[in-house]
Amino acid sequence: MEKFFNPRSVAVIGASNSPFNLGATICNILKHIDFKGSVYAINRKGESIGDTPGFSSVLEVAEKIDLAVVIIAAKHVQDTIRECGEKGIKNIIIQSAGFAEGGPDGEALQKELDEASRHYGIRYMGPNCLGVLNTHSKFCCFFGIVPGMYDDVFEKTGSVSYIIQSGGVGALVIDSLQAEVSKINKVVSIGNKADIDEADLVDYFKDDNSSVIGMFLENVQCGRKLFEKAKEVDKPILVYKVGRTSEGAKAAMSHTAGMANNDAIFDSACRQAGMIRLNSISELYSLPKMFTSMPPLRGKRIAVFTNSGAFGGIAADFIISSGLEMASLSDETVNKLHKTGQLFNASNPIDVGPGLSKQAFIDIFDILLSSGEIDGLLPIPNVWQDVVIDSIVEIVKLCRAYKKPAAIYIPNAPERIISIKNDRQIPVFESPEEAVRALEVSHRYHNHLLKKELLAWQKYYRERAKEERTLYRNMNQSMSLRPQAL
Amino acid sequence: MEKFFNPRSVAVIGASNSPFNLGATICNILKHIDFKGSVYAINRKGESIGDTPGFSSVLEVAEKIDLAVVIIAAKHVQDTIRECGEKGIKNIIIQSAGFAEGGPDGEALQKELDEASRHYGIRYMGPNCLGVLNTHSKFCCFFGIVPGMYDDVFEKTGSVSYIIQSGGVGALVIDSLQAEVSKINKVVSIGNKADIDEADLVDYFKDDNSSVIGMFLENVQCGRKLFEKAKEVDKPILVYKVGRTSEGAKAAMSHTAGMANNDAIFDSACRQAGMIRLNSISELYSLPKMFTSMPPLRGKRIAVFTNSGAFGGIAADFIISSGLEMASLSDETVNKLHKTGQLFNASNPIDVGPGLSKQAFIDIFDILLSSGEIDGLLPIPNVWQDVVIDSIVEIVKLCRAYKKPAAIYIPNAPERIISIKNDRQIPVFESPEEAVRALEVSHRYHNHLLKKELLAWQKYYRERAKEERTLYRNMNQSMSLRPQAL
Description:
Two copies of one chain form a homodimer.
Chain A: H1 2-5, E1 9-13, H2 22-32, E2 38-42, E3 54-55, E4 67-70, H3 74-87, E5 91-94, H4 104-120, E6 123-125, E7 131-134, E8 139-140, H5 151-155, E9 160-164, H6 167-177, E10 184-189, H7 198-206, E11 212-217, H8 223-231, E12 237-241, H9 246-256, H10 263-273, E13 276-277, H11 283-286, H12 288-292, E14 301-306, H13 310-321, E15 325-326, H14 331-339, E16 350-351, H15 358-370, E17 376-380, H16 386-402, E18 408-409, H17 414-424, E19 428-429, H18 432-485
Parallel strand pairs in A: 1-2, 1-4, 2-3, 4-5, 5-6, 9-10, 9-11, 11-12, 12-13, 14-15, 14-16, 14-17, 18-19
Antiparallel strand pairs in A: 7-8, 7-10
C-alpha cells in the first residue's frame, strides 16, 4: 500500500500533448509541487510533456516503476494493465470512467480488469477515481489541478487523512480545509473501488502518521471487513455516508456503481465500531480540529461563556438537546468569577458583557478550568475588538494545560470568521450547533476509547485469571501426585 | 408606530462629548448616513456634538420632537421620561440597561417607568435595547456603530424586516445579510419589551413595505396577541425562539428578563398561525432570499441537477427526509435531456458531468421547468468555470418565467461561495441541507396561504349561504303571508 502514497517512480499512462489532455495536468502538477520521484509520460507517440520524458509503453522505461496512473479510454485499459503486469508494476490507479457505473458494457470491462490484475498480482485503485494526494511526500495524481491552485495544501501539511469516493466532495473538503487549523495529510479518491476499498485504506491509516480519518462513502463494499478494520483503529474515524433514504442510495448507485446498503444496520455497526457518523458533509472539514487541537471531552458538564448575552441561551438549548449538560457552578466559583470584572451574569451561561480586558478573560478561563466543576467550555466571543481574538489564543493554550477542551463559536458573519481563522490559525466554529456537535463527538469518541480500554483490561484479567487457574490446577495435581510417588 | 421608524425630529438623551459616550455615536451615525430629520443632543452641560446642537433638556428644544432615544443610567430614566412627557413626546426608545433583567431593584425601576409613560400616554421600546434601523428612511439609533461600518446596509436597501430581542444577534444578522441577495428593510431591537412587544411590531410590518419578517425571540410577552396578529399577516414570518429546553429558557430569562414559555405550545401555535419556526440562527439570514427572489414551491416534486455526481445522492437524502419528493421524469423528458449534451445520467438526480456550455445548461433548465413533471429545482452547480456562474444567472430568470422555484446550492468552499454571492448577487445556498430547507419552508408557507385562502372562501360561501337562506326564508314567509293577506 505504501507505494500508492510514496512512490519513487510513476508512469502517467495517457498523458500527452493533445489539447485538454488530463494526464498532462498530472505531470505538470507533480513538476510544480516538486515531487522527488521520477515521472514518465506514456502515450502513443512517446512524446515528452515539458520536462517529463515520454515513452510509447511502460515496457520501454528502463527504471523500475512503483506506480502507474491510468487515464485513457475505458476500452483500452485492460491492454494497458497487461503491459503494466509484464513490466512488473504492482500498483495501479485507474482514473478512467466508463466501467460498472455506466451500465452492462462497463460492467463487462470491469470484470476483464479484475481478471487481468489478478493474473499479474496487481492491486489497483478505482476505476473512476482521482487516486492519491499526499502532502508530506508531495505526491499528487489528481487530474485537472492547475499549478498554484493547491500550493497551500502542500506547504501547510497536517494530520487529517481522507477516504473519499467522489472527486467533487474531495475538492470541496480540500478547499474548505484551507481556512481550518487542521490540515491535510493524505486524500484518497477511490471511485468504484473494484479492488482496493475503504477497509483497506482504514487499515493503512491505522499505523501511518494520520491522527484523524475522514470518510465520504456512497456505498460500502464489504461492511464486515470495514467494521472489523475500524475496530482496530485508535484514531477518530468520521464518516459521511450517502443513502440514508432509498432515493439517496439509488442516486449514489448510478454515480459510483455501488450496492445499496441497509442504512439502519450501517448506523448501528458504526456505533459499535466507534466510527462517528456525520450529519452533514461540512462536518468532514469542521470537526477534525476538535481532535487535532483540543484535549478530549471527558465528562458532560459544559460551561458556556459569552460577551454577547443572547448566545448563552441559544447554546444552552443545543447543549441539552445533544445530551450534554450545563455545568452547575458552586457559589465559590460564581464569587470568584464576579471578582474578575463587571460580569452581567456569573452563573452558567456566563455573560461577561462587552469591554473586558485580556487578563479578565484569562482569569475567567482559569477559574472555570481549575474549578473541577466543568469538563469542557463553549466560549462564544463576539469579536468586536482585537483583544477578544488575543484572548481566544490564550484559551487554546489554557485548555491544553488543563486537559479540558473548548469548542469556540465566534458569533460574527461567516466572512469575518473565515478571515479570523485564516489570519490567526485558531480552532473556531461557525455556528453554535457546530460547536456543540464538536463537543458531543469528542465526548462520544472518548467514551468509545474508554470502553475499548476497559474491554481490553477485562480480557487481560480474564486471561490472567485463566492462567492462574491453570497454574493452580497444575500445582494441585502435582501436589496430589507427589504422595503417590512417595 | 410610524414615528419610531420615520421620525422627523429626534432627541438623543445622554449624548455628550465624554470619552466613549454611546449617545454620541448615535448622533454621529445619523450625520454619517445623512438622516434627513433634525437631531438634538441632550446632556447636562447642553453641549453640542459636532454639528448636532446640544441642549440640557428636551424642554429647551423649540421644535416638536417625534422621538426620544434615551441612553442614560437606569436610575435617571424615569425623570427623563417625565420631561419627555411634559414636552409632548409620545415615542421613546429606552436603550439603558439595568431594569427587570438585573433583579428586584431593576424591576422596581421598570415599574416606575411604566407608570410615568402611562401617565403621559407615551409608547416606548426597551429598556435594554438598540431600537430602530430603517434603511429606506436612513434612520438608525443603534449605539456603537462606527461610521462606514454599515454603509452598504443603507445603500443597498431591501424588503426583509427583523424583530430582534438581542443586539448581538441583530449585529450578526445585519453583517451576514451583506453577502446575501435579500437586503434589509428595517431592524428593531426590542430588549425587555416592557411596553412595545413583538406582536405590536408584527402588526406594524403587516402593512408596511416589508415582504419577509424575521424574528429572534428569547421569550414571548403575550402569546395569544402575537399569534392573533401573525394570523392576519400575509407575509412569511420566520421565527427563531430560544428556550427549546428549560436550560435555554433559563439563560434567556437572565438576559432580557422574560418569562419562560412552554416550548411545545409555542411550536404548535406557530404552525397554526403559519409562522415558520427556525432551527438555526443562520436561517434568519439564509432563508429570506427564497421568498424575495423565487416563486413559491407549489408542489413536492423536486428535480436535482448537478455537474458533480456525488451531490445528487447527498441532496436526495435531504429531500426525502424533509418530506419532499424526488420528481419522477418521463421517458420523453429523459430523452430530451439526453439530447442536450453529454449527460452522465438523465434520470433524477440528473448528472450532467463537467464541461457543459451555457446553452446546454439553459436547455436542461427549460426542459425540466416546462415538463409539467416537477414543482421545483435543486441545482448543484460546482463552479469551476465562469460559464457555470453565467448559467446560474439564467436559471434565476427562467424560474421566475415558469413560476417554479430553484434552491441553488454551490458545492464549493464557503469562502468561494461568499465571493460569488457578493459579486453576482444571486440567491445561492451554502449547504445541501440549507437548500432543501428553503424548498421545504417555501412549500409549507405556500400551503399555509392556500389553506388560509380556502378558509376565507369557505367563510364567504357560508355567509352567502346564510344570506340566501335568510332571503329564502323571508321569501317563503312573505309567500305564505300573502294568501292570508289576500
